[in-house]
Amino acid sequence: QVQLVQSGGGVVQPGEALRLSCSASGGPFSTMGWLRMPLGKEREVVARLKWNDDHKWYADSVKGRFTVSRDTGENTGHLQRTNLTPDDTGNYYCNLNDGVVFGKGTLVVVSS
Prior knowledge:
By secondary structure, the chain is an all-beta fold. Helix content is about 0%, strand content about 55%. It is globular and about 40 Å long.
């Protein structure tokens, strides 16, 4: 059974950066994605990574600020979030195979 463990939440000030890491185990997967649920707003998919060819997709709202990368040896993907603003506050989730498996979520709070 494929499992996903994520880490990387916390409280930061506007303009700071934070990295979310997602480690997969237990089986193969083809995509790793990240979505967020900003407080009081709709769920938003922010990034997606095709594991085999490293093809990346970003939502317009995070382009230029968020970057995904992968460590294939560790089956771990990273979402590097920079220049964070209060609008980025919310719970972040990573997932595999376009939502078949989800991580438990991590909370990010951007506040001065």
